[in-house]
Amino acid sequence: MVIGLMADAALASWHMSDRERCLRDFVVILQELNEVDQASSLNAAHCHAVCRHVLLWLDQEATGKKRLLAGGEEITIYPGIVSNPEPSPEIDKRHITPIEMAWYMLAAVENNSLLDVGITLRLATYLPKGPVVEGQFLLTFAIMKKSLGLHNIALFVAALGEVVTWWAFVKEQEDLKNSFDTLNVTYGSLPVAAPEQQHELTEATEQLVLGFVANSIFEEEFFEFGALIDAIEKSNDLKVRMVFLDCLRGSDIAVDYVTSAALLLVSYRQGIEENRTPSPIQVFELIFIVFQIVGKTINASAVAKSAFKWLSSKWDFISEHQRFLLKSPAMHEKFIAQALKSENDSVVNKTIGLLQAILPILGIGNESELKRALNKMLQS
Question: Fewer CB within 10 Å: C terminus or N terminus of the chain?
Answer without folding.
Answer: C
